[in-house]
Amino acid sequence: MVDLSDITGGFSWFTNINWLQILIAIVIFILGVFIAYLARKLLYRALIKFVPKTVAHNTARIIYYALVIIFAISALGTLGIDLTGLIIAGGIIGIILGFALQSVTANLVSGLFLYWERPLKPGDVVEVDGHAGVVLDISIMSTKIRGFDGVLIRVPNEKVFSAVIKNIGANVARRLEFVVGIAYKEDAERAIDVIMKVISEHPFVLVYPEPEAFVSDLGSSSVNIAVRVWTPTSEWMNVRKELLWRIKRAITEAGIEIPFPQSDVWFRSPLEVRVKSDDEKE
Amino acid sequence: MKIPELKGYGKIGTGKYRLLNYIIDISELNGKGIKYIRSKNDLILADSLVIGSSDVVIVPIYPVLVPKKITDYVLVELDRKIEIAPSAKTEFYIQIPVDIAVYAYRDKDFTIIDIIPGYKPKYALYGSPNEGVIARYMRTSIYNSEPTPEIGKAVALVRVRNKTRGWVTLTKILVHSNNLRLYYEEGSWRACIQKLNVVVDSRSTASVTYEGITCTGVKPIDDPLGLKPPRIVYKTSMLWGI
């Protein structure tokens, strides 16, 4: 015959369980998940006003999982499970991951700061870390720029954050500056008049701030005239392409010489030129 | 044969016309429509085939579309400063730039086949590079009565009120092209916009509101899609100098 007491004796641990503690642990965990869910919703709603959707979503999710883990650990603690070993192991894993994912974390944090500070936004024409182009996207880890040659450039956010950023398209107007050299024998004032006439005829050279042309330097081969004009930022490149050639053409048509670089060589002692006859050569 | 000069806005038929420095050539297209060419010194600047319509109308158009649409603002600088005493009011006429549009109509539907720069287009920055706006620019005289119509210019009656307790100097007026309505007289280059009401709030700020039309004998242009004035007309704030 089978002794039934032996069978139930195998489940003696079942009777030793503190059901109240388990209930408390379950309640703590469920309550924790609920609080984490609420925190995620509220945080998402708060963040979406300031940062892009993806950042708000990811940040809220990180907070959600962190809270769930904290409440799960608390729930296990009420059951008398010693989590010291787990915490130590978690700490070690954390340190290892910290070292391994150092650059990832740096990019992530830099990405968040970029969203907050907003030194650039998609559509801006920028120069970042020596790469010039149009910003296509700022994701949580990297910034994508389409170079002027059409190449897609991915710059890690850590580099963007620490780099000098030139936001070329941030302002509505931009200054264009170049130097025109004329020969020393020419009348610089007349050359300036010619330049100013060309400038005034270009529609996208702004009337205000006023354009200016002035003698900026007495160079080695030429009298240099600096030309400074303001243009709408969107037209800066077109004006740059058109204006310099128009000025060159107008100056040439006005009979003003644009000199080549030239050097006068002076000898301290008089030069002696000796011409040998054919007999002497032999 | 001498090419006749266009004398004003309105409907034009087939033929060659002179308009500013351009030659406009409109020819029939085998009864199917018209061929439109605008040239300058034998260089073709606009060339269109218009199918199903032969009604071509020349009208004034808002001065923000050519050479390229880069702004909605128009800045008019006065050739003389106006010193206005505290709480004083004044009224005068000014001219603002307009370009010339060539519309092709079929019944009431139309399309723009060309826009000709009416007045030498220039732009200026109003305000600072980081906060200001780019605006189509023109310098205007101040008139006591409506000035003689000129191609490429529309007339506006301006009423200025100094709301401050000190003297102010008015040198320029900024308007938003979306709030403008253009009117023209057929057969002449007469074009008008609404009355501009400039209220000076401080020594360096003012607001411009747009009232009704004061010109008589004129009709409104058909506004192209996207350039129709809003039902609620907002004021234009001049925050960076007056």
Structure characterization notes:
The complex is a heterodimer of chains A (282) and B (242). Chain A has helices spanning 4-9, 12-16, 19-47, 53-78, 84-100, 102-117, 157-162, 188-201, 236-253, 278-281; strands at 125-128, 131-138, 142-147, 152-156, 165-167, 173-182, 212-218, 223-232. Chain A has 282 residues and is an alpha+beta fold. In chain A, the strands form two sheets. Chain A has a five-stranded antiparallel sheet. In chain A, α8 (188-201) crosses α9. The relative contact order of chain A is 0.07. Chain B has one domain. In chain B, 0% of the residues lie in helices and 52% in strands. Chain B has a five-stranded mixed sheet with strand order 8-13-17-18-20, with no helix packed on it. The N and C termini of chain B lie far apart (51 Å).
Shape of chain A: elongated
The Cα radius of gyration of chain A reads: 38 Å
Q: Structural class of the helices, strands and pairings of chain A?
A: alpha+beta
Mean pLDDT rating of chain B:
92
Oligomer: heterodimer
N to C succession of SSEs of chain A = HHHHHHEEEEHEEHEEHH
Query: From the helix content, strand content and strand pairing of chain B, which structural class follows?
Result: mainly beta
| Beta-strand residue percentage of chain B | over 45%
SSE order of chain B in H/E notation?
EEEEEEEEEEEEEEEEEEEE
Percent strand of chain A equals 15-25%
Cα-based radius of gyration of chain B, to the nearest Å: 19 Å
| Biggest interchain interface, per-side counts | A-B, 16 and 17 residues
Strand order, main sheet of chain B: write it out.
Answer: 8-13-17-18-20
Helix content of chain A: 40-55%
